[in-house]
Amino acid sequence: MFEVQNLTACYGPLIAVNDVSLSFETGVRMGIFGHNGSGKSTFLKCLVGGVKDVSGAVVFGGSPIVADQVHRNVMLGIGFVPQVQNVFPNLTVEQNLHIAGSKSNSSFLEEAYALFPLLRERQDQLAGDMSGGEQQMLAVSLALMTRPQILLLDEPTAGLAPAIVKNVLNSLSRINSELGTGLILVEQNVLAALDVVERAIVLKGGRIVFDGASEELRAKEDLWAWF
Amino acid sequence: MEYILTVMVLIGINVILATSFNLILGYGGLMSVAHPIFYAIGAYCSGLLAIHLQIPVPLSILIGAGIAMVLSFGVSLPSLRVSGDYLVIASIGFQLGILHVINNLDFTGAAGGLTNIPVLNEGPSRSLVFVLLIAVVAACAVFLVGWIVEGDYGRAITAMRNDEEAFSALGRNAMNIKIVLFAIGSGMAGLAGALYAHYFAYVTPEQFGIFTSAALLTMVVVGGAATTWGPLVGAVLLTTLPQAITFLGLPVSIMAPLQGVIYTTLVIFFLFARPQGLTGGSRGGGGLEAWSASAAFRARRDAE
Fold first, then answer.
1. What is the CATH number of the domain that holds B253?
2. Is the pLDDT assigned to residue B301 strictly greater than 50?
3. Which ipTM did the prediction report?
4. What are phi and psi of A8, to 5 degrees?
């Protein structure tokens, strides 16, 4: 279980996340939405300790998330997929997956290939030579190699063609249903993401302005006024 | 003959220095320019231990290298939390600060240098034996770095250099890798310094300044950063080139600044014309391209 209490995150004088409190189970499928600068990516980073200047508390499974100690926090069972810079371009697909698995258990490699068969076909290709969608599949697989209970994804469909967006989101749904891995999804692509998540959070100016079922958000006639 | 052997000793020492600098700069992507100061620490510590405590020279060489390795933590622990431009500035500060201390202490010989350092070996074949020794040590340095960067640990280094954020997101500690690379590279530089001191029996602070940083950078860039053989090729070329120029018989007013001009020109030329260096592959095979690969691929991805 993730528990966030009075979380505030700053970049110098700028308050990106302002006194946010919420909690959710690890198996959840939750989307975090908001316009640019609303604090959604910062909030996601805080869940894994990726922001230094924070106050309040983030607790995962009874263990505190320590700021600026991402490498330790993820070992608690949190997979984190950054928006960009999420694969190692100079290494092949297989080497990427081995790097990811070496700290946990490389035996998941076959399961990762089963989830994304394309990666097996491209296992000897440099990650930097793959398309954006393929890189995103690899990035998700890298995070899965750490065997997380919950996966945090920062705009996994950014810059992808609509057909590929559907592909990536379907893969995430399968990961949740087949592996039981929770999904926390920060997305600009609201309508597509609402198909995948069951709970939606909307941030505005670093504060939560909506927290409810995804269907409730989708049903709002003034949906776009929330962003 | 003695002259040629002395040049060969210098080549061997520069191979160790460039190879160890490549581990930090080329493979680790850590933009430190303070490598010569660990070369100095090895030289001075080993020399002083042999002079004042009469420690046997082979032992003092090892201790000198060990001290350089230990003191590297003094730079790496506080300054490796920053990167890029900040690390360059922090490392320059450390280098100039230590040099300033050496320049102003009596027991280091101050600006006049440390003299009467006991030599490692004596006898009629002294230089030849030393050349053989330094060749073995240089070969070990090249193979040690080659061994480190191969296999799982080497791939982790590449991943860390490609992207620290993604690397940390996989539960890997980038700081640990940086500190280990910095310590091994600095220890090797200290070893090179100690060997230098116990061959030439004399060291001065000016040998370890920014000019030496520029020379080592040139060797790595020209030979090929993040390649196994690049620093060796760079060290051989850039140690022999200035020696060869001395035979041209140019006036001193031209000769004096020529070396610096050559280094600068070579670095600029290779940065633009052949960033992979002389030994780097056409793509992804090392060199400065290895550093810029992640930026280039992100730009390509963003453009899609």
1. 1.10.3470
2. no
3. 0.80
4. -130, 130
